[in-house]
Amino acid sequence: MTHERVLIFPTGPIKAFLTKGTLLTPKSACGLYVGVTRAVFSVTFVTDKPDKIGFPVWTPLG
Fold this sequence. Notes:
By secondary structure, this protein is α+β, with helices and mostly antiparallel strands. The chain contains 2 helices and 2 strands, in the order βααβ.
């Protein structure tokens, strides 16, 4: 199943992977892979500290 856009609310291990580069367990890595590969156009990670991840941060205009 695919979706045009996917929002991912990262769990503790995925937050650590995104912010610190901590290796994921195989189960967490598979879950992240499945979530990311379901998106057709975009994937967004929802986090309270976007500046820690290093990806571009979306902000609304105005």
